[in-house]
Amino acid sequence: MTKKMRVLMLSTPFPTHFTPMVPLAWALMGAGHEVKVAAQPDVTDAARAAGVSATEIGDRFHGLDVLQRHLPEGVRPLELMGPTPPEKMAGTTKLWETHARYLLSSYLEFAQDWRPDLIVSEQMELTGQIVAAVLGIPSVQHRWGVDPLSGPSRASARNFLYGTAERLGLAGLPDPDLVLDPCPPALRHPSAAPGAPIGYVPFNGAGTVPEWLQKPAAEGIRRVVVCLGRQTLVLNGTPLFRSIIAAFDGLTDVEAVVTADPAFHEGFGQLPENVRVVEPVPLNLFLRDCDAVIHHGGANTTMTSCVFGLPQVVLPQIVDQFASAELLASAGAGRVLGEAAPQNDPGQVREAVRDVLDDPRYLKCAQELGADMAGMPSPARVVEDLERLAG
Fold first, then answer.
1. How many Cα atoms sit within 13 Å of 150 on the Cβ side?
2. Exposed site from 12, 188, 265, 309, fewest CB < 10 Å?
């Protein structure tokens, strides 16, 4: 009989950094193991909503404050800073090095009391590897999806946390014992070290699908979903949404479903007849009846759209979203508008939408990505590997 494990999951304080690990948490619990998330309230809220036990460590982080305080009124991060080039990718993760040093003692104290057999951390969470090494247990790193960040940032993290690790009796920042990678081969970033595959199970939060959305589009009409995450609008994104909405005006054989927080709906102005704006709905609940997705290149949205084999139009906004978008385009599964000017031009957005809907090559490549992902080992299968790793 397999020994029942205690598995500690750690995450940086953004819910979307944590949610890719939720299906693995469910699989572990389904196999009889005990799972605990230790994190700041930004993440413990999401964990409990997903049915995973959680303990709060520290205060709420309010992560968007870091970006908002530098933004002039009405200006998006992309308009202020431009796309993030590959050579600057490592510098974008400095925040998480400081975060790790700040919370390490609290995580270590909790782990020493709870005594896990295994620690699983998402790709930007760095304390898990240190805590596991101090406790003498294995550590696992779980990627979000496309990962252009971990590789370039590793040298900086080793340097920044060297003294912290040494004072705990370690020879610097340890590497994880296992890296779990849900990314299909065609989207793996060249800087990402090889990992063990784990099937991506879409989980975009809890929610209820509105009754009208449970029905497919009318015959001859293609449905396009617009989902740019929750932070795009908060970061002065209302004009971008107006540009995207205007792009659908006159597309008589297309209907658009725009998901957005109700607080911003009024700012979208008069809607074309073929556009409906709705409250945020978890994408995995209704993408099966859609034909394409417009999104910002966030890891969860990209991976969920790929699982459903849908062509994508990507309007990246910050950091890793640019690299993810370019890899998707290289795989032939989508179009990218990577600069502010084309994103703000309804005509160029309309052309990209028309392209991915009318050219069958996009659908073919998107379906191939979905088939590749379907062939990856399920989280339930990966649990067996984790059981062996924990001994």
1. 25
2. 265
d(CA 245, CA 233): 14
For the whole prediction, is pTM greater than 0.85?
Answer: yes
- Three-state helix/strand/coil letters over 216-278: CCCCCCEEEEEECCCHHHHCCCHHHHHHHHHHCCCCCCEEEEEECCHHHHHHHCCCCCCEEEE
CA 91 to CA 216: how far, in whole Å?
Answer: 44
Q: What is the pLDDT of residues 279-300, one digit of tens each?
A: 998 998 889 889 999 999 999 9
Contact 66, 95 (CB under 8 A): yes
- Residue 245 CA to residue 334 CA, distance in Å, equals 19
- Give which of 95, 104, 161, 94 is closest to 132, Cα–Cα: 104
Q: Which residues pair with 295 in a beta bridge?
A: 227, 314
Under DSSP, the state recorded for 378 is: P
Measure the CA angle with vertex 142, ends 136 and 145; round to 5°: 165
Distance CA 386, CA 7 (A): 10
